[in-house]
Amino acid sequence: xxxxxxxxxxxxxxxxxxxxxxxxxxxxxxxxxxxxxxxxxxxxxxxxxxxxxxxxxxxxxxxxxxxxxxxxxxxxxxxxxxxxxxxxxxxxxxxxxxxxxxxxxxxxxxxxxxxxxxxxxxxxxxxxxxxxxxxxxx
Length: 138
Prior knowledge:
Blueprint: E1 5-7, E2 10-12, H1 13-25, H2 31-39, H3 44-48, H4 53-62, H5 72-75, H6 78-87, H7 97-100, H8 103-112, H9 116-120, H10 125-128, H11 131-137
Antiparallel strand pairs: 1-2
Helix pairs in contact: 4-6, 6-8
């Protein structure tokens, strides 16, 4: 489903998908103000700090949608992603590809998450084919 929404008399599929992600992830701040800020590009400070772990953790605490701006480096940083995963269970869908191959990290995430079956869908094929890893998951 790729809905387009009307914004200032224009349609944007990217904004629509981003807003759907925000709605599905939950918005803690004022949705109207946040959506307006997103659409109008007022998140330059967040984008500029995409690789600053402390800044991004605080931004995600304030509004989970800010995870959209986290750098690939941080999405593959085990300490950062564990902290984010403790803030919200929705963070697991943003785990970087490198971490999805990290058996130790994925076991930690699986054990701390209430929906273990869902988390297992994020595990790399390499780990799913690893008998030792799969025995530990059970």
